[in-house]
From TrEMBL:
Region: Disordered, residue numbers: 223-266
Source species of the chain: Nitrosospira multiformis
Biased composition range(s): Low complexity: 242-256
Positions in coiled-coil regions: 4-87, 185-219
M23ase beta-sheet core domain mapped to chain residues: 293-386
UniProt-recorded name of the protein: Septal ring factor EnvC (AmiA/AmiB activator)
InterPro entries from the UniProt entry: Cell_wall_metabolism_enzyme (IPR050570), Dup_hybrid_motif (IPR011055), M23ase_b-sheet_dom (IPR016047)
Amino acid sequence: MAAEPSDSEELKQLRNKIETLEKELTDTEGYRSEAAGALRESEKAIDAANRRLAELAKQRRAANSKLGQLKAQSAQIKKEIAAQQLQLRNLLYGLYIAGGGRKEYLSLLLSQRNPNEIARNLHYYEYFSRARKEGIDGLRANLEKLNTLSLASREKSAEISGVHARHAEQKVQLEQQKDGHAKLLAEISLQAEEQRREINRLRRNEDRLTRLVEKLTRMLAKKKKFEASEKPSEPGVPPAPASNSSSPDSSENAMPFANGTSFSSLRGRLNSPVRGELANRFGSPRADGGVTWKGLFIRAAGGESVKAIANGRVVFADWLRGFGNLMILDHGDSYMSLYGNNEAVHKRVGDVINAGETIATVGNSSGNSDTGLYFELRHQGKPFDPLNWVRIK
């Protein structure tokens, strides 16, 4: 009899599967923690940017208020300039009336004979000269002040507008980063949740199939034991040779093979149940979850014939969640072959099947996105690698 995985090997595989699953979940949770941390940092940066923008808005309001004051001062200065211009114009006109200029005025002054008249005219001349100088100096000072105030207000307004624009742009970038981090966190959380759901689904499917096979194994064992106890024993008559046994459930070999051989002797000589492409290896991690493959998935065209790998008897032919339309053949000595994901099964429970006989057609009844056959071999309810037994074409 060929060696199958022992209990310790099964336990080791289970522990390795659990370790792989825990590592995947730990990695996913780590990615989610990193994404959550990045999101927190983005939110803190946005909060700081909002505070800075609020402060800039306050400064901008103050600058606008100052600008309003400067405009009011400018308007007042413009009024003063207009008054000074009028005053200076009147002063110059008075000088013109008085004599038209310094030379003419001195000539007029020296022609006077009355000393009092001369003194009065000198006083008027000094007054006009001083007033003209003060008017010109005041006008020049106000013009310079107006230019300074206007320039300062424009520079301050431009500075605040520039800073506000830069911070507003920075806030937009931070908001985009926040949205990106939030989206990444949501995707990772969804991935982790989907991963958990898929792992749980695969485990439930595996448990269903394991319970079914164990139940069938127990039922067959009880049946063999019962039939052995019911077999009549005649004194002096030796039991029939095993090679001539016609009972499909004999105690030595539950199913007859050519030349009295057992299923275990066919290791490496069994034909593939269907022509197609091998999509996985036994024991390799499944891409859609943390569990491992307990059998083979062979991609094949829909409607392709599924053939029995050896003589056997149908012990299950029905739909099973996760495996679709499933057929299980008993080959004796606690060996079973399983054929799942079928479009249809063509045999019923109790039918005796010959090697190479069509028992089903390929489909995707388990909800698998690929069309093909899911195939397992089990001994005493435990799965083992079919590639050591079957030649996949």
